[in-house]
């Protein structure tokens, strides 16, 4: 449930204008948000510590991070027409 949207990356990646620096930032934000959440989950589940409040904060952080990542992916997409007057266009030429 952490990486459900990765299944759409092969579909959207060829149309992305995202540079290496921005992609690295996006991956870094994702890794940090997951690590913070999983740290609190580990402390709760395996060490038996009361981390419910921090787990909630980390969950909210994952929510914010995933929404920001989605906004970055959408903002950096090239829009390509697939249909024109009912006919399918050659998408490879448009890229």
Tell me the Rg in angstroms.
Answer: 19 Å
Give the low-pLDDT segments.
none
Oligomer: single chain
Average pLDDT: 87
Shape designation:
elongated
Number of strands: 2
User: Which structural class fits the helix and strand makeup?
Assistant: mainly alpha
The amount of helix comes to: 55-70%
Largest sheet: 2 strands, antiparallel
Order of helices and strands: HHHEEH
Q: Tell me the number of helical segments per DSSP (H or I, 4 or more residues long).
A: 4
Structural commentary:
The two termini are 32 Å apart. With 95 residues, the chain is mainly alpha-helical. Helix 2 runs antiparallel to helix 3. The protein is elongated and about 60 Å long. Helix content is 61%, strand content 4%. The chain has a two-stranded antiparallel sheet with strand order 1-2. The chain is built from 4 helices and 2 strands, in the order H-H-H-E-E-H.
Short description:
The protein is 61% helix and 4% strand. By secondary structure, the chain is mostly helical.
Features:
single chain; 95 residues; two-stranded antiparallel ribbon; mainly alpha
């Amino acid at each position: 449930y952490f990486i459900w949207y990765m299944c759409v990356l092969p579909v959207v990646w060829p149309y992305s204008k995202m540079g290496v620096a921005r992609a690295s930032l996006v991956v870094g934000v994702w890794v940090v948000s997951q690590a913070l959440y999983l740290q609190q989950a580990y402390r709760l589940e395996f060490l038996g510590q009361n981390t419910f409040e921090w787990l909630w904060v980390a969950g909210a952080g994952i929510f914010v991070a995933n929404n920001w990542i989605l906004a970055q992916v959408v903002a950096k997409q090239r829009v390509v027409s697939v249909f024109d007057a009912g006919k399918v266009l050659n998408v490879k030429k448009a890229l």
